[in-house]
Design goal:
84 residues, rod-shaped
């Protein structure tokens, strides 16, 4: 499974289970209502995974930017002290 992803959490497992159940229901009875249900569940799961990953990446980018600003300010201080 994709549990090795840092953004993957318990709710993601719930979406995977719902998607699997909808697929099994469709395989057993390929009616139009089960096709529609499977497509809806797949769409919701994909959207949730995409948003979760986006939130995770955005937080990492912000953390990196904060860290890089702190490092650059430290480097400026060292450089300005060397000039004196």
């Amino acid at each position: 499974m994709k549990q090795h992803k840092p953004w993957f959490e318990e709710e993601c497992l719930g979406f995977l289970d719902k998607r699997k159940q909808a697929k099994m229901q469709w395989v057993q009875d390929p009616s139009q209502s089960n096709v529609d249900n499977l497509n809806n569940v797949r769409h919701k799961a994909s959207r949730y995974f995409r948003n979760k990953k986006k939130e995770y990446l955005k937080a990492n980018i912000e953390e990196f930017q904060t860290y890089s600003v702190g490092v650059s300010m430290t480097l400026r201080r060292v450089t300005s002290l060397e000039l004196i």
